[in-house]
Amino acid sequence: MLTPLAFRVRPKNLSEVIGQEHLVGPNGFLTNCVNNETIVSIIFYGPPGAGKTTIAEAFATSLNCHYIKLNAVTSGKKEIEAAVEEAKFFHPTIVILDEVHRLNKDKQDLLLPYIEDGSIYLLGATTANPYIAINPAVRSRCHLLEVKALKDDEVALGLTRAIANPQGLKGKVRFTDDAIAMIARLAGGDMRFALNYVEVAALSNKDKTITADDVNAIIRVPNYLMDKDENEHYDSVSALQKSIRGSDVDAALYYLARLCIAGDLESIERRLLVTAYEDIGLANPNAVQRTALALESARKVGFPEAIIPLGFAVCDLALSPKSKASCQAIQSAMALAGEKPLDVMDYLKLTPVNVAEEDKYPYDRPDLWDKIQYLPEMIKDIRFYTPNNVGAYEKQLNENYLKLKKIKRSRNLRELKK
After folding, report:
1. Per-residue confidence (pLDDT) for residue 221, from 0 to 100
2. Are 142 and 122 in contact (CB under 8 A)?
3. Angle value at C-alpha 221, between 312 and 290, nearest 5 degrees
4. Which pTM does this prediction carry?
């Protein structure tokens, strides 16, 4: 039985990779590494189907290196330990790790020393933002390389090659240029998606030339939703959040419906969670919790029934009072923390050294906790949180906030304890 077309026609070396000129072009980073016989640990990040794992394998093959494929989710400690043992007999060894952002601490503890000393080289692949999702311990040991969504003409070239490839359709099925162009547009930069469509079209239309009409007959997703050139899909995601923020429930439902038709539960989930915390926040925290529960329900039932809890969440969020106070507060704190990473005061440290008992944090004195100074002296009067009295809950929080701000805080714990 044949394996899927997308698997059979994967590039075997860098010269066969389509697009990604910044990586595999004449002056691309990976090309230079191969020409200089240099191996480095890399995190490839980018959208699904852009070729992250394929490029990792092609890079390893082009370097003529032994490589081992693992998945951060499904590969346990035993598999990782086995890979490390195997690497002792093949130097250098590359470990290609899919879903690298899901690498938990136990697995990191196993891999990191060997990445550090060059016993293995890590080629990770992820669809997540590596600056947010990848653990700093892993990130600091790797180069971060973006794999971009393919352009329509690049996808079309890949399809043309796959149709003619002896490992692909072997030239036995003919597609018109319009049919290939339509599939390339539908793919939205996802080569795997496009190759799957070609395979379905070929199986559905044996012994004939496949036209755009034939492709249209098997389309499950409206073209306008996946048209990368027009950015319609991502514009719908953006419009959904803006409509909720603007409390236009009808507009929010319309853009939600477009995303539901596309079956893009992942984008909906991510956007609604961000919207709930960013735009509604403290004004209606119960709505935030209800959104999380609705999204969990949507995942459990899947489409088409998922539209019911999703519609509930969108109506709830759009009609809720809005407050960006907590979002703006953390953004302000992030900006200052990045600029001024000040030392933590001794009495706040987990295990303070050379600190007298009288000057240590009073775990047994809750009456003193709100009288202690927690911010470093240089920024002790800074204000990140700005009250935004919208919902009843937020008003209650703000009353307490203003009351607490009237208390004079002190670093002199010895005096406070008297």
Report:
1. 53
2. yes
3. 15
4. 0.56
